[in-house]
Amino acid sequence: MNRIRNGLHGLAFTYLLLMWGYIFFRLVTQNENYFAGNVVMYSLPLLVWAMLDTMLALSFRLPVKTRSIITALFSVVLTGMLYHFNILLPYEDWIAKGMPPRPF
User: Fold this and answer.
1) Which residues, other chains included, contact 89 with Cβ-Cβ below 8 Å and sequence gap of 6+?
2) Domain range list for the chain
3) Residue 21: closest CA among 43, 4, 36
């Protein structure tokens, strides 16, 4: 069971690293601050899974996967910052906010 859990942690961690790598690449190469997709929609299922798994690990006194905790918290905070500071918005929200320019 631990082997399966470690594999799932590895897949989730790799997916989140690839997702944030793509977002960073897009921010550097594109001038627009809107995105056709929704960043939260792509990252939320894995974040919820990582947090639930961490809560279960803590409640049953199993070894805690620190990597999952840090990655999930970092992703939640970074996603909120991207949206709050108008750095990368879903297209509909960008239109609703009056098409604000990117701060940099």
Assistant:
1) 33, 34, 35, 82, 83, 97
2) 2-96
3) 43
What is the DSSP track for 57-74?
HHHTTPPP-HHHHHHHHH
Residue 72 DSSP symbol: H
Supply the pLDDT for residue 50: 67
- The DSSP secondary-structure symbol of 32 reads -
State whether residue 90 is helix, strand or coil: strand
The CA dihedral of 53, 57, 58, 64, to the nearest 10 degrees, is -100
pLDDT tens digits, 15-24: 777 878 888 8
Which pTM does this prediction carry?
0.64
Of residues 24, 15, 23, 18, the one with CA closest to residue 39: 23
Question: H/E element holding 13?
Answer: helix 2-29
CA–CA separation, 14 and 77 (whole Å): 18
Distance of alpha carbon 65 from alpha carbon 61, whole angstroms = 12
